[in-house]
Task: structure prediction
Amino acid sequence: MTARIGVVTFPGSLDDGDAARAVRLAGAEAVRLWHGDADLHGVDAVVLPGGFSYGDYLRTGAIARFAPVMEKIIEGARDGLPVLGICNGFQILCEAHLLPGALTRNQHLHFRNRDQWLRVEATGTAWTNVFQAGQELLIPVKNGEGCYVADQRTLDELEATGRVVARYLRGNPNGSQRDIAAITNEAGNVVGIMPHPEHAVEALTGPSLDGLGFFTSILKHLAGAPA
Amino acid sequence: MPRVVVDVMLKPEILDPQGQAVANALPRLGVSDVSSVRIGRRIEIEFTGEPDLERAREIADKLLANPVIEDFSVRLADAADTEGAHP
Result:
């Protein structure tokens, strides 16, 4: 059966269309979820896309975290539902306390939009299992508040438990501590990533096809998961 | 009706690039004796009934501030706040 991957649209989401397209290119069915939905329509996994939900008011992701659909996603994620948060989605996952730390204003204060090299470090997650450890990816980054911060103890724990999923290579675009571009939770089902894999899935529009691996990973994960 | 004032500030150990940018602009105004600027946020809350500091603290902790990176304080607005708001 075709895997059904939910893509949430919040007021102010931008990359929900691209995320749904990436899901389809990977071979899954994309199910559009609305921020006001009180159920997840039986999806097997969820993508929280990039953008500026609720106008980034208060803090990025702070208001989206309380959307009705998030209640179910938070509940599901704690029970193992795979969730990928991209950019604003990563910010929402931190605000929802599904991932530790926070994303703050880029250190240099400039919005940064460029193709970015990453090194994949954790390949055991639901969203990165088709990559090789140490594999280098080229994926667009575009954010104003992508500077990952957490206290030293949390950073040490992330490193010690192999939960740094990807690091920036050849230049840190936003000042993130320890060059962190993506992290995962303890179980490996929830991943937050600042750069945009959904923008690197087709030769026509992306700098590479490296982003597709995140979406084929979830299919592989679901195929291997007990029903 | 009295208001509750919530002040939210980045924790001291969190870098404040906005504050730094402002501090770096001050010499252009001829100000050279400022060593640091930090930028926070002030939120005023009005309750339908009596102001409830406990409730305001809960709102601040859950929504207005992110305890990972920010500290907050909660107090009743006083006369000085009102004068400041309406000169």
